[in-house]
Specification:
The protein has 440 residues and is of the alpha+beta class. 20% of the residues lie in helices and 34% in strands. A hairpin with a 2-residue loop joins strand 9 (235-244) and strand 10.
Length: 440
């Protein structure tokens, strides 16, 4: 026989009793089974009424006596012997912690802005650590992993931005500056499209050339041209050279090549490649300067050329933008500036203010006083319109450096051979233009 406690009065009675011998409280089979395991539980006795109850109660179930703090030692002992895990808090990741970790991964591999990463870091940490503090080791691990990933991205992005801000100016767009103007500029809104007014831009030699409009296309920009040939010659037309916002595109004459039979008409276009606009940081096309040549297709000779024509868009505000650099030559209304170097490439800018177009060659190129014999076709027979600029690059080949035992380029010398209006009989050369890397 074993003794159990009466649930009503707490008196010890036989486990076989059907009622309490003291108070008469009925003893059911459930009570007997529950009390049979009494030794497996941490129990306490009420100081007031001697009722025996579980230590986790904050007051006596019988008399209501408050027992807060009286049985802390017994409660600690019970937790150590029988640790409990709350429902749904097993040693596995919760949906919140997984969501936080995924947000952290997105911050690392998708978002490259450090401030956005910071916000995602806060959200990820909040999700991963949501809930009670005594839950889950894996959950905390995800939280810390998400934190570390975001912190790495933030540090790398800040360093990258710092390096970018300390750039040596080797990007071409960094050299473009707006020339001072008294005219105020109203910046157009992004919703306004680029437009060109329909107009006749050339009418001579029994030929009419008309601008019909313009289009912004995936590959760049396009100006629509209508040509009417009222002569008795079968003519071929090309935009021999043209500039955007005063910068020569250096496009081939085949960028606009159109045949118009005698007495007939044709539609064609001048294309401006997107890569050119990006290279020169052109957000708004203001002007297009163009120079047309017309050929007698039967005689295969040039029949005539137009004057320089300026086509204005709705964004033309009269403000001139110029590429500026370190002046290396100025004479006869021609200027040469050094812009930047990158590896074996050294970039310069030529400005033409002679009131006419001219053709030119970059000649007598010498590196550390060793003359380059090979001709660079990109520096031969180039054309620049009046009031425009042309960027050219002098490249020093590795083979040339090896042949002449040049470890490092220290000095570049060259001349410009200038042909006003493309006339070889009036060609003249500039003095030697020198760029000394050790003095810059």
């Amino acid at each position: 026989m074993a003794l159990i406690n009466c649930p009503e009065c707490g008196k010890e009675i036989s486990d076989k009793a059907v009622s309490c011998t003291s108070c008469g409280y009925p003893i059911t089979e459930d009570i007997q089974q529950e009390e049979a395991h009494i030794e497996e539980r941490n129990l306490a006795t009420c100081p007031k009424c001697s009722y025996v109850f579980d230590v986790n109660y904050t007051s006596c179930p019988k008399c209501g006596y408050r027992t807060d703090g009286l049985f802390d030692d017994l409660q600690a002992s019970e937790k150590n012997q029988n640790p409990k895990v709350e429902s749904g808090a097993k040693d596995a990741a919760s949906p919140l912690s997984i969501s936080g970790f995924i947000i952290s991964l997105c911050a690392v591999f998708v978002i490259d802005e450090p401030f956005i990463c910071s916000i995602l870091l806060l959200a990820a940490f909040s999700l991963c650590t949501a809930g009670k503090r005594d839950k889950l080791h894996l959950k905390k691990g995800l939280a810390y992993a998400g934190q570390m990933l975001c912190l790495v991205v933030i540090v790398v992005a800040v360093i990258a931005n710092s390096d970018s801000s300390e750039s040596d100016g080797s990007k071409l767009e960094d050299t473009i500056a707006t020339v001072a103007s008294e005219k105020s500029i109203d910046e157009p809104t992004a919703e306004i499209s680029t437009t060109v007014e329909e107009q006749v831009i050339y009418e001579n030699h029994d030929v009419i050339i008309r601008v019909m409009g313009c289009e912004e296309l995936p590959y760049g920009f396009c100006v629509d041209i209508y040509i009417e040939n009222n002569s008795d010659l079968n003519l071929g037309f090309n935009a021999h050279s043209y500039a955007v916002n005063g910068i020569m595109t250096r496009d081939s004459i085949y960028a606009m090549d159109c045949d118009v039979a005698a007495g007939k008409k044709a539609n064609t276009s001048i294309g401006i490649d997107k890569s050119f606009l990006e290279e020169y940081d052109v957000d708004l096309i203001k002007t297009i300067d163009v120079f047309f040549w017309a050929y007698d297709n039967d005689a295969m000779i040039k029949e005539f050329e137009t004057e320089q024509i300026t086509i204005s868009t709705n964004y033309n505000d009269g403000v001139v933008q110029r590429i500026i650099g370190e002046g290396k030559y100025s004479g006869n209304n021609i200027q040469v500036d050094y812009l930047y170097s990158s590896g074996n490439s050294h970039t310069f800018c030529l400005t033409n203010d002679t009131d006419n177009y001219f053709d030119f060659d970059v000649s007598n190129i010498s590196i550390n006083d060793y003359t380059v014999s090979d001709t660079d076709l990109d520096l031969f027979d180039e054309q620049i319109l009046n009031g425009c600029q042309l960027v050219f690059v002098i490249t020093v080949e590795d083979g040339f450096k090896t042949k002449n035992n040049i470890d490092e380029v220290e000095k570049i010398d060259f001349n410009l051979d200038i042909r006003p209006l493309g006339d070889y009989f009036n060609e003249w050369s500039t003095k030697t233009i020198t760029y000394n890397l050790n003095q810059n």
